[in-house]
Write a structure and sequence with these properties.
Blueprint (H helix, E strand, L loop, with lengths): L1 H10 L17 H15 L3 H15 L2 H13 L3 H14 L4 H13 L3 H14 L3 H13 L3 H14 L3 H14 L3 H15 L3 H13 L3 H15 L2 H13 L3 H10 L3 H10 L3 H15 L2 H14 L5 H15 L5 H13 L4 H14 L4 H13 L3 H14 L5 H16 L2
Helix pairs in contact: 1-6, 1-8, 2-3, 3-4, 4-5, 4-6, 5-6, 6-7, 7-8, 8-9, 9-10, 10-11, 10-12, 11-12, 12-13, 13-14, 14-15, 15-16, 16-17, 17-18, 18-19, 19-20, 20-21, 20-22, 21-22, 22-23, 22-24, 23-24
Length: about 425
């Protein structure tokens, strides 16, 4: 945060185009013309030339706002000596006009003369305290790495103006510079309870919870952000953190709250609740007409069934056949192919489907195992053995089902010799 402060504070007390509020008792078309010319030159960043016109206006009107504009232009032109001279002369003429002290403090800060900047901003504060002056003072201390004092004056600014910017500054100093992490979070949490979950504040709060690996805190913040702004990115973060924490019940409730069936499907799959997963997948298919949901529904239907009877196999195969007409995903091609092979529904067709899957992922150990099992089923045991050995040895896939396939294929080879 500190690296951005120097740039910010140098301009924070400038009035910008303060001349637009100029109301002189001196009525003259020549003044209007001079002002117009000065503003035009300043807009083109010809600040020194603009000041020649402002000087003429000041000589005619004696309005202090013209002096403010001249000081700012000199500052913007990096003519700090001229800016200081103008500001000091202005203070002598208008000793109770706060703006001139603020401008002089800004100039000294640009020159890195921190004591003098501090002196003049305190003069301004004595005339009338304001949040921006306390922020300026806090910034001086922050640049000097005097963090306790910086914190003190940001708190003073916050009392007068409890803005997101001020509470963030307080929290950053506490968290990163004073090792008061709990206090920083408490400050932000209190602010959100009073003023709501402003984006910049809640983003800071989320970043702190992230650094502390506080997943519950992250969930809480992103829930508040979503409920206030209704942006999907926040809802998604809540869901992701709940799933990561394996809080599936809460994740399910959240998915229902935001009405996201795809997230519900993910939860039911993780919980291996295939019956509910099947229902949601079918709902999604009917709503979106996306064949991937039909394919997923078929898999859930099969995995969730206790009795793998012919009726079930036919229902599952029918759904997958419909899906793969347009969805050439190797996962579903292999699944249907293995189903045809393992249950002797149509072994040759199953082999062709597996081969199609292998065109897309030629080194997939699962697809190779399916192919080996298909060759075994049609008596090509030697070809099957070559493939299954590659899976078992070279690809290091030694699951129980593959071990069983290897054993059966080896027995088949021995029997044929």
């Amino acid at each position: 945060m500190q690296r951005y402060i120097a740039t910010i504070v140098l301009l924070m007390l400038l009035t910008g185009c303060s001349i637009k509020h100029f109301h002189s008792t001196y009525k003259s078309s020549s003044v209007d013309e001079l002002l117009l010319e000065a503003q035009l030159l300043a807009s083109q960043k010809l600040y020194t030339l603009a000041n020649k016109y402002y000087q003429k206006v000041y000589e005619l009107t004696k309005e202090p706002v013209i002096l403010e504009e001249m000081i700012e232009n000199s500052y913007l032109a990096h003519n700090f000596e001229e800016a200081m001279k103008l500001a000091k002369d202005a203070i002598r003429i208008y000793p109770t006009r706060k703006k001139f002290y603020e401008l002089l403090a800004t100039i000294y800060l640009a020159k890195k003369e921190y004591k003098k900047a501090n002196y003049y901003i305190n003069k301004a504060i004595k005339l009338k305290p304001s949040a921006k002056d306390y922020e300026f003072l806090a910034s001086i201390y922050l640049i000097q790495k005097r963090y306790p004092l910086a914190l003190k004056y940001y708190k003073s600014a916050y009392i007068l103006q409890p803005s997101a910017k001020n509470v963030n500054a307080i929290a950053y100093i506490m968290f990163f510079y004073l090792d008061k992490r709990k206090d920083a979070i408490a400050y932000l949490e209190t602010h959100t309870r009073i003023y709501g979950c402003q984006k910049s504040v809640c983003h800071t709060l989320a970043s702190f919870y992230s650094l502390l690996n506080n997943l519950d805190g992250l969930v809480s913040v992103y829930k508040r952000l979503y409920k206030k702004y209704k942006e999907e990115v926040y809802a998604k973060k809540v869901f992701q953190f709940l799933v990561y924490s394996k809080k599936y019940k809460e994740a399910e409730e959240w998915a229902r709250f935001v009405d996201n069936k795809e997230w519900l499907l993910l939860i039911y799959r993780k919980k291996r609740d295939f019956h509910k997963a099947f229902e949601i997948a079918m709902e999604l298919y009917k709503e979106k007409k996306d064949p991937k949901f039909l394919a997923q529904a078929a898999i859930f239907e099969f995995e969730g069934a206790k009795n793998k009877n012919k009726k079930l196999l036919k229902s599952v195969a029918s759904k997958l056949e419909t899906a793969i007409r347009t969805l050439k995903d190797p996962v579903y091609l292999n699944y249907l192919g293995y189903l045809y092979i393992d249950y002797d529904m149509d072994v040759k067709k199953g082999i062709e489907l597996v081969k199609e899957a292998l065109k897309k992922e030629p080194n997939s150990p699962y697809y190779l195992d399916s192919l080996a099992w298909g060759y075994y089923k049609i008596g090509k045991c030697k070809e099957a053995l070559k493939i299954i050995k590659k899976v078992y040895n070279n690809l290091h896939l030694q699951e129980d089902e593959i071990k069983l396939h290897l054993q059966k294929i080896q027995e088949c080879v021995k029997e044929k010799h």
